[in-house]
Design a protein that fits this description.
Elements lengths: L9 E5 L2 E4 H20 L12 H23 L3 H5 L14 H19 L3 H8 L3 H14 L28 H20 L8 H17 L19 H23 L6
Antiparallel strand pairs: 1-2
Helix pairs in contact: 1-2, 1-6, 2-4, 6-7, 7-8, 8-9
Family: Belongs to the Lgt family.
Subcellular location: Cell membrane
GO cellular component, one term: plasma membrane
């Protein structure tokens, strides 16, 4: 069994103001995506020009935060949202959903594309490789914050989280997600998108890759206590929400390679 490296979830405390590592993870992910987008925008076949990147990052950040929060309250809020509607606005209490943030970014990119006259799927292909950076850093934030831990296990890399009331050795499932949804997915997408590909192909790889990775890791992750297992008595809410992403990813890849429509060079 590995010892849990206890790290204060609060990275910076200035009087009543507390900045958590989870929040810094989001900011770092956005900053890294911004830098990479600037580099990619120099390539002649990219749909986003360098002077449009700042505006693009603003739209993405807004979609992530608003969509993530709205998605969490709708997908995971349950009775709490009914009993206390104001909780949805208290972002400092935590609670973000990737699937909600994903839908928020889709809507934000629709608006950005209309504003700058950029085709929606070419725009999604451009930003998809940068998303896993924020996903991976967010999972590290979950690990430091001792949330979303895994199921009990006897594996030699199991950890006992100090915040766990049962004090059981558990899968560090946050690190599994960091490795699959973050490092691996970023490496695959960044390499795959390094040259022109058929429109929708990069988006298809992202949707399929994230959906499959999340579905797999959920088998090792403790389900939300207030939700538990749902479909068939063994699927979690996260797995149910990931299945459409897998289907969409496969569909986009079929459309991309059957159509054979490549980016303009």
């Amino acid at each position: 069994m590995l010892p849990y490296p206890e790290i204060d979830p609060v990275a910076v405390a200035l009087g009543p103001l507390k900045i958590h590592w989870y929040g810094l993870a989001y900011l770092t992910g956005i900053a890294a995506g911004w830098w990479l987008a600037l580099r990619r925008s120099r390539l002649p076949w990219c749909p986003v020009q360098r002077e449009q990147v700042d505006d693009l990052v603003f739209y993405v950040a807004l979609g992530v935060v608003l969509g993530g929060r709205v998605g969490y309250t709708l997908f995971y809020g349950g009775d709490r949202l009914v009993d206390d509607p104001g909780w949805a606005l208290r972002l400092w209490e935590g609670g973000m959903s990737f699937h909600g943030g994903f839908l928020g970014v889709l809507f934000a990119m629709y608006l950005f594309g209309r504003k700058h006259k950029i085709a929606f799927w070419r725009l999604m292909d451009f930003i998809a490789p940068f998303v896993p950076i924020g996903l991976g850093l967010g999972r590290l934030g979950n690990f430091i914050g001792q949330e979303l831990w895994g199921k009990p296990t006897e594996m030699p890399w199991a950890m006992i989280f100090p915040a766990d009331p049962l004090q059981l050795p558990r899968h560090p499932s946050q690190l599994y997600e960091f490795a699959l949804e973050g490092l691996l997915l970023f490496a695959v997408l960044y390499w795959f998108s390094s040259r022109p590909r058929p429109t929708c192909a990069v988006s298809g790889i992202f949707s399929l890759g994230y959906g499959a990775a999340r579905f797999f890791v959920e088998f090792f992750r403790e389900p939300d206590a207030h939700i538990g297992y749902e479909a068939f008595g063994w699927l979690t809410r996260g797995q149910i929400l990931s299945l459409p992403m897998i289907v969409v990813g496969i569909t986009l890849l079929v459309v991309a390679y059957r159509g054979g429509k490549k980016r303009e060079s």
